[in-house]
Amino acid sequence: MKALLFGSIGTLIETSELQRNAFNLAFQAHGLDWHWERTAYRDMLRDAGGADRVMRYADRRGQQVDAARIHQSKSRIFQTALRHGTLPLRPGVIDTMRYAKDTGMTLGFVTTTSRANVEAVLEATARSVPVDLFDIVMTRSDVNQPKPDPACYQQVIAKLELQPADIIAVEDNSDGVTAASTAGLRTIAFMGENTRDHRVPGATAVLTDRLEIDAALLPNYAA
Length: 223
Description:
Number of helices: 8
Radius of gyration: 17 Å
Order of helices and strands: EHHHHHEHEHEHEE
Oligomer: single chain
CATH superfamily of the largest domain: HAD superfamily/HAD-like
Distance between the termini: 15 Å
Low-confidence stretches: 219-223
Number of domains: 2
CATH topology of the largest domain: Rossmann fold
Largest sheet: 6 strands, parallel
CATH architecture of the largest domain: 3-Layer(aba) Sandwich
Number of strands: 6
CATH class of the largest domain: Alpha Beta
């Protein structure tokens, strides 16, 4: 294998509950009496897109809201919480990254979330994951189509001049897995605490508690 690509901020740190809380605080800031409970939010995560999620919820309630503005507020709250918090890396992540770098693999972060969110995550994890550890970083500003469209991965494949079979992607949700597998990548679904019961067709392997690369994917892996 020649490249290892992390596909979302949730593959590095567990952010789902932090994001749910940020949504609820944003609703309050916009004068809405909404509150997303954890069980309902888990179901909402089956579909990607924070602003779209807000719009779908408003439609079900028969309300009209500015979903984009609400999502912008949520993102600012989330980024502030990240920068002032102490969220650890998910189990196995740093060992896997070190193995990839030590064996000469290209290490990438390929997401279609905002650059501001990516920068906040990298700042929050800087002690464990120096920014320069990643050889390539892609965000929403670098691609026209969000996941599950495979465009982001197709761009990275072309940029790295590799074959899809030479690349492993790590994703934490069904849309990400769909994007990576459609691009022809071997894909590990490293599901988070709020997505672990979601179906992920197309995943080569499904993990929940610790990131480990199976020997069938990467021979001689020894983290």
